[in-house]
Design brief:
Length: about 70
């Protein structure tokens, strides 16, 4: 379980990652880390979308597919 400051840090990370993705939509690492942050915040639908975007953009990277399977 996460304390309040951890959740705030994760929310800040989500904000920054979404900003990076808006600037550069083809940024698979940002989609992957966004998915990870959203999963930790228990936003599973958001995490799934972010991981799927990462898989679509970098199909040879096993991390997003593995993370998607663990949701």
């Amino acid at each position: 379980r996460q304390d309040k400051s951890q959740k705030e840090e994760l929310r800040d990370a989500v904000t920054l990652l979404r900003k990076a993705i808006r600037r550069r939509p083809s940024f698979p690492e940002a989609h992957y880390y966004l998915g990870t942050a959203l999963a930790r915040l228990e936003d599973l639908p958001g995490a799934e979308k972010a991981y799927r975007d990462a898989v679509d953009q970098a199909p040879d990277d096993p991390r997003p597919l593995s993370a998607l399977c663990q949701l």
